[in-house]
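Practice record 12: protein with glutathione.
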Amino acid sequence: MKLYYSPGACSLAPHIVASEAGVPLELEKVDLSTHTLADGSNYYDVNPRGYVPAVRIKDGEPVLTEANVVVQFIADQKPESGLMPKAGTPERYRAQQWLAFIATELHKNFSWLWQKDTSDETKAAVKAKLEKRFAELDAHLKSNDYLLGKNFSAADAYAFTIINWVNFLGMNLKSFPSLQAYMDRVAARPKVQETLKSEGLLAA
Ligand SMILES: N[C@@H](CCC(=O)N[C@@H](CS)C(=O)NCC(=O)O)C(=O)O
């Protein structure tokens, strides 16, 4: 299976899930400034939206997209990893609830901050909304090590990837100590360290 990724982008989430689960991945880097691959070919031919992550499951079939679904697909290759609860259980829906929350309340809002043409007014409104969501997460993480409770899951890989963007967008988590402790806890996981190094985000 091949993962199209860009260092530090939301594709880091499925990359972490694969590392944690022990799912082998072929990695193909996408230059998001030109939407090209290393051989110069056009990434829009792979994913017409031009987004990472995308996963090539089978040659000749469309790639699988949407980070919150891609992480589930990868986790489900190794159910024994426990990175996603068993399909059909209430726990699975709870995990999916977190994944949808991350996709729509965090990821999509952060996307406005990355765009060069977003107005300052919109940026301020988006930051205020994100801080509300950080406060919710901070309260949840006061009594939970991870989003699902005691154990790390695919939802944590996604949340970590997205919230880590505060470090590149002039924001911080100083007002959210439990959320900061959670980010530190996830960052310290050996497989997360390994993945960050492999994307060149930490010195090897
Ligand atoms: N809805 C997509 C959004 C993916 C997305 O926003 N990817 C960003 C990187 S984090 C991207 O590839 N941006 C390149 C572009 O906008 O052309 C998902 O959830 O996977």
